[in-house]
Each structure stands twice: as C-alpha cells, then as structure tokens.
Amino acid sequence: MSQSATTIAAFDNSYARLPERFFTRQAPEPVPAPELLVFNDALAQELGLDLTEGTDLAGLFSGNTPLVGAAPLAQVYAGHQFGGWVPQLGDGRAVLLGEVINTSGERRDIQLKGAGRTPYSRAGDGRAWLGPVLREYLMSEAMAALGVPTTRALAAVATGEQVLREDGPLPGAILTRVAASHIRVGTFQYFAARGDTEALAALTEHALARHYPGADGPRGLLQSVVARQAALIARWMALGFIHGVMNTDNCAISGETIDYGPCAFMDSYAAGRVFSSIDQFGRYAYANQPQIAVWNLAQLGSAMIPLMPDQEATIADFTEDVNGFSAQFEQAWHSALCAKLGLDGARKEDVAMAFELLTLMQAGQADFTRVFRGLSEATERARDEFLNREEVDGWLRRWQERLQADGGSLEAAQAGMRAVNPAVIARTHRIEAAIAAAVAGDMAPFQRLSQAISTPFALSEEHADLALAPSQDEAVTRTFCGT
Ligand code: AMP
Ligand code: MG
C-alpha cells in the first residue's frame, strides 16, 4: 500500500532528538482506501508546504505515503483524568510525523490522529471514526477564526475502513492536526512520577526553548504557562466554550486549546452547563474551568519541584505562582466580558453590570452568543432571546445610559462590540447534522458550516440560518468522547 516517499517540507524534528524514553518510534499504519474529505489550503500555505497540483494529499495525510524528513513517533505522557491519576497514557491513536517551521518562523508539529495502534493504545484500535475527526476539525478551526490559541486542522481523510464502536461499525477517518507542540502537563507528570529528573530537566529545557525563550528555568516556565492558561481560559469563558475534558493530559504547555472531544459552545447560558456524557459530576462544567486550570497548573508545579535545589522554598514559590492565576484570569475575563458590552473591565460597576446580565440570561434561558451579538446590532434582538423579557428591560435601560455617559453613544460602542461578539459559532446541533450528512456521503453541510465559521464576526446572508439557536427539538445537550 505504501508509496514512494514525498517531500513537502523541510522537517526539523526537535522532539525526536530528545531521549528515546520520551516516545516510541512508530510509523502510521497504512489504510486501505484513503480519500481526501477536507483540506485546509490556507493553513498549508501558512506552513509553507510545497504541494503541487498532482500531490496525492489523501496518500500523504492518511499516512500511506511516507514524508521525506519525517520521524514518526508516538509520544508518551501520563495524567489525571477526572482527578484520578493514570501513570501512563500516551498517543494511543496519534502519530507525530515531525516538525516544520512555518512562514512566520514558528515551529509547528504535524500529527496524524487516528493513524493506527501504538504501544500506548491499550485496548483501543488506534483509529478514529469520521464524527470526532470532523468535529475537531470544525471546532478547532472555529476557535482559530475567533482568535483563540488552538491547535489547527490541516486535513481530514476517510480511510475506507470501518471502525467498530459501541453503536456498531462506523466509517474511519484521520485528522491532520497542527500544533505549536503536543507537550502536555501530563508529559511532565510522566517523568516526575518515575523520579526521572534527567528527563524532566531535558523536557523543561525543550519546552522553554520552544515556547518561552525569554523565561528562565522551571519557575519561569511555570509562570509562563500560568499566564498563557489564564489568558486562554478567559477567552473560552467569553465565548461560552466548554472544553469538557480538562484532564492534565489535555492541558498544553504552549497555552493552545488542545484535544477537542466532547466540547461545545453553549447555546442557552447556564453557569453549570455540562455537555460531556462522561462528566457525571460536572467537574468540567463551564464555570468550573478556571478552577480546574489552577488544579492542573498545580500538577505542573508539583512535577517540576524535583528540579529545584531547595524544595521547601520551591513549594512556597510555586504555590504563589499557581495562585497568581486567579488575578490574571480575573483581569482578562472581566475585561473580555466587559468588552462584549462596550464596557470598561477596569471599572467595578461595569463588571457588576456585566455579571447581572449573565444572571438574567440564566434565568431567562437566553442564548449566550445571540444575546451578545444582538446587543451589538439592535437591542431588541437581544431582548427577544430572553423568556423573562420584562425583567431585562431595567438592565437594558441602565446599560444604554451607561454607554451614553461621558459623551459616548450606543452606536459607537456597538461597532466595537461586533468585533468581539461572533454572529456565528460552530453550534453542536449543526456539527452533528454535518457529521450525519458526511456519514451518508454528503460533505456539503460540513463545507457550508466550515465556511460560515471562518468569518465569525461577519455573517453572510446565505448563512443566516447557521446563526440561529437550536429549537427545543434540535438542541443537543450531550456530547460524546472523540474516540
Ligand atoms: P482522550 O480522552 O481523547 O484525551 O484520550 C485519552 C487516552 O486514550 C489517550 O492516551 C488516547 O491516546 C487514548 N485513546 C483514545 N482513543 C483511542 C483509540 N481509539 N485507540 C487507542 N487509544 C485511544
Ligand atoms: Mg487527550
């Protein structure tokens, strides 16, 4: 099945040069009949990939055709899953092909997800079915278009093979994921748990060089990751995004959103909103995300303690650094939330006004995205989203008065608000519909949704229906792990 090796980029595989115990060298397992479903031309250009018209993209991004310069491997890591320690995880269905330098001079991992069994697959088959592949594609590209740090999707390829899942056989697929790196909190935990200080030191040095060249040592790394995660979670909160599986192995050192499984942008607002079918106790509910990030960062800090000479002093320092998350997060979150309303996140009264709106939204089962977009366009539109409209009137009046104070105007505020409040997001019911159509062989709904979310702040007339909230019948309230 494998074809002659092809050159598409100058690979420079820094992770593959780390000690052998960081990974297992593993080529993707060939698939019977690869067929290209989607390809992200813009991202390919950013990466500077050398693709001519005749390039067999399906062969390349299924793993069937070897890439010249790639050094395929499966990374090992550990992690806390739902708070429970798992000493060894790893790429069980993914293979890192290697790293390239993009046209902006940034290092990027190219990984195939669903590429077959690895030593870390355990009971799994190492494959993915079409659903989670298209879901990750749409969600990660939606986040990128919204300006949120995230891994990217370069391609989705159907394998021509069925994979067996709970509900029976499903069409197999492979996602090509692009990331600043795939180093996770769980990667540090893996070596810490083994008392492998030498590996920890090498990993720290590698992560610093790659992501935080200005930072110094383990403490510098911890502080940098805290800052990035605080900024990231604030962005999630401001978009009503729920990751769903914030396990330490799904927390990237780079500060990118990674591992889109049962994630979702919420429709109607509720602070305790949970989508993931396996999140029984709501550990990863919307409003819990900042706290969970702190918990994850504490695990990163703990893992690096053995690298420091004075452990007692280090515990005090690292605790202070991790606790520093709260102030940074709050500052970023309040300013993002206030910007959504044309308000000033530095003013206590404005922050209070913004939170009052969230309380009204929850009581009125109002759609998160549509309320903010509505306020950015025509106040009436936002009001219509609430069940408790009369209760919202007082708030709306005070808000408009506030915008007009100090010589401001509603219209001027709204122009700015339209640049931060998306008109269209990748809604769960639309993603599910696109997947169902794709399984039946029709990629048109996927393409249409993909196009609409690529310009989330400017909705075109022809995509107007994609901005609608789901009806009660359409609403999807449960999402499933992407395996
Ligand atoms: P996730 O919940 O997607 O972050 O995955 C948790 C762990 O399970 C990771 O180590 C994955 O590599 C592994 N895993 C998930 N799905 C599969 C699969 N189909 N085959 C093998 N391993 C898998
Ligand atoms: Mg994961």
Task: Report on the architecture of this protein.
The chain is an alpha+beta fold. It contains 15 helices and twelve strands. It has helices at residues 41-47, 57-60, 130-145, 185-193, 197-211, 217-239, 289-304, 311-339, 348-363, 368-377, 379-383, 389-404, 410-417, 428-439, 444-453, and strands at 23-25, 35-39, 73-75, 79-81, 84-86, 94-101, 107-113, 128-129, 152-165, 168-179, 241-242, 264-265. Strands 2, 6, 7, 8, 9 and 10 form a six-stranded antiparallel β-sheet that branches. Strands 1-3 form a two-stranded antiparallel sheet. The chain has a two-stranded antiparallel sheet with strand order 4-5. The longest helix has 29 residues, at 311-339. The chain is globular, with a radius of gyration of 23 Å. The model has no long low-confidence stretch (mean pLDDT 97). Bound molecules: adenosine monophosphate and magnesium ion. Magnesium ion (MG) is lined by residues 249-250, 259.
